[in-house]
């Protein structure tokens, strides 16, 4: 078996692929090669040598085809994994297909021994953007785990994560939501509904549902708004569930509460529940400041985070918090090299900058020689984080786009600059808004 791999053509595939490698298979006694050596070669990007070594192991153990067919199937699967990790996707699929066929002839239809090679195939298919085929492979692997160890077996968690990845990449967000929630159900069945082992997943889900709500249109129709509010409730619910577990086991002053409280503050702000957002952020800061084990970096981050929230909600307490953070930075040894950086220039807080604005057609205000469409505007970030003194510098787009940009800038909020312990205005900042003409959509078939 000869397979060539040019190092500069190899793409480092998903790192999770290598986690499927089975290093503990018994190989021939005379072999001087181990899978530990192969992993080292892959880590150092010696792909040709790694593939050659994996091929040699398979060839040196051909006798296992009949004496230990499962072991041989795993060796062939390992070769497919090495090929996939090295970017040889077509070869990896071909070898994995042979390994799967060999194992299928040696074990029952729903044997757990099939799961590893099926997962290896699915990972490669995902990398190759063959997502429907990958989903089918993952569903087969999941079905095997259910038959082997029940519907709520933890062995399926990596499979669910990959199914989620496919759903998210294809825009199937409702299924993505279900897969995230099913992961939590599996963990609850395994560890119990009040186990602290649920905390990382609960916090992850709180963040996930909050981001989903944020990306769902604020001014959509009734159904879309219902979905948005449902996502907000799920986000808050997961954070509150984490808080309940922590308080039940460790009390109401435990620093483990900080992360879910900060999560609630983020979600509540996106939801425009400003007061509830502030309450959560204030409690998180109080816990940080009341914990003697908290390092200065965490304290500064929490103070700035609350200051940012106050800036967004036009609360005058933001200035005091920023100055407290600035003083801690000046005093802290861990901030060497950063002392002048954190408040050196204004930091945009909300909304995100509009990188490109699309136009329906090229405007008549642009000359034929103009290579780009743009507005250049000058503005000031004031000491309260608001924008003032917006002034047009030049443009080649219509005036309505100028008015839109002016409104956008006035609505933008910044963390202000601090100079020698004083919060100052920052004038003469320039914002360049770029425009592109949208490609016309092809007519619908009639």
Q: Percent range for helical residues?
A: 55-70%
Q: Might you state the CATH topology name of the domain at 347-437? A: TolA/TonB C-terminal domain
Main β-sheet: number of strands, strand sense, barrel status? 4 strands, mixed
* Radius of gyration, in angstroms, nearest whole number: 28 Å
Q: What is the CATH domain class of the domain at 347-437?
A: Alpha Beta
Mean pLDDT equals: 88
Shape: globular
User: Could you say what the CATH architecture of the domain at 347-437 is?
Assistant: 2-Layer Sandwich
* Element order: H for helix, E for strand: HHHHHHHHHHHHHHHHEEEEHEEEE
Strand order of the largest sheet: 2-8-3-4
Number of E strands? 8
Ranges where pLDDT stays below 50 over 5 or more residues in a row are 1-14
Q: Which class do the helix and strand fractions yield?
A: alpha+beta
Query: What is the fourth-level CATH superfamily of the domain at 347-437?
Result: TonB
Tally the helices: what do you get? 17
How far is the first residue's CA from the last residue's CA?
53 Å
Strand fraction: 5-15%
Provide structural commentary.
The strands form 3 sheets. The protein has a 4-stranded mixed beta sheet with strand order 2-8-3-4, covered by helices on one side. It has a two-stranded antiparallel ribbon with strand order 1-5. The chain has a two-stranded antiparallel sheet with strand order 6-7. The longest helix is centred in the middle third of the chain and has 29 residues. 56% of the residues lie in helices and 11% in strands. The protein is α+β, with helices and mostly antiparallel strands and 446 residues long.
């Amino acid at each position: 078996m000869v397979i060539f791999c040019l190092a500069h053509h190899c793409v480092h595939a998903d790192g999770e692929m290598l986690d499927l490698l089975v290093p503990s298979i018994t190989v021939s006694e005379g072999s001087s090669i181990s899978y530990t050596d192969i992993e080292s070669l892959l880590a150092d990007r010696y792909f040709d040598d790694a593939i050659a070594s994996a091929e040699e192991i398979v060839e040196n153990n051909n006798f296992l085809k009949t004496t230990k067919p499962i072991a041989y199937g795993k060796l062939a699967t390992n070769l497919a994994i090495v090929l996939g990790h090295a970017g040889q996707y077509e070869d990896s699929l071909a070898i994995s297909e042979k390994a799967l066929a060999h194992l299928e002839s040696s074990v029952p239809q729903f044997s757990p021994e099939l799961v590893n090679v099926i997962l290896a195939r699915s990972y490669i298919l995902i990398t190759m953007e063959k997502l429907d085929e990958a989903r089918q492979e993952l569903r087969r692997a999941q079905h095997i785990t259910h038959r082997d160890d029940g519907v709520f077996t933890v062995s399926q968690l990596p499979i669910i994560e990959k199914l989620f990845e496919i759903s998210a990449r294809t825009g199937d967000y409702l299924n993505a939501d279900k897969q995230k929630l099913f992961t939590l159900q599996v963990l609850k069945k395994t560890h119990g509904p009040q186990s602290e082992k649920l905390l990382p997943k609960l916090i992850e889900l709180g963040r996930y549902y909050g981001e989903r709500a944020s990306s769902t249109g604020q001014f959509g129709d009734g159904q879309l708004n219902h979905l948005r509010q449902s996502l907000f409730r799920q986000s808050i619910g997961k954070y509150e569930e984490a808080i309940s577990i922590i308080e039940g086991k460790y009390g109401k002053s435990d620093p483990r509460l900080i992360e879910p409280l900060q999560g609630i503050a983020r979600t509540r702000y996106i939801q425009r529940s400003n007061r509830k957002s502030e309450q959560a952020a204030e409690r998180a800061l109080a816990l940080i400041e009341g914990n003697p084990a908290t390092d200065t970096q965490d304290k500064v981050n929490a103070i700035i985070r609350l200051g940012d929230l106050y800036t967004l909600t036009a609360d005058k307490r933001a200035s005091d918090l920023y100055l407290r953070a600035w003083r801690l930075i000046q005093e802290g040894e861990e901030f060497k090299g950063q002392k002048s950086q954190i408040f050196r220039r204004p930091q945009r807080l909300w909304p995100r900058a509009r990188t490109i604005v699309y136009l329906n057609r090229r405007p008549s205000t642009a000359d034929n020689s103009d290579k780009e469409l743009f507005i250049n505007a000058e503005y000031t970030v004031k000491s309260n984080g608001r924008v003032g003194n917006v002034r047009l510098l030049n443009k080649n787009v219509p005036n309505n786009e100028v008015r839109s940009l002016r409104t956008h800038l006035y609505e933008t909020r910044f963390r202000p600059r601090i100079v020698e312990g004083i919060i100052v205005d920052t004038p003469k900042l320039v914002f360049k808004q770029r425009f592109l003409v949208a490609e016309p959509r092809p007519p619908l078939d009639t």
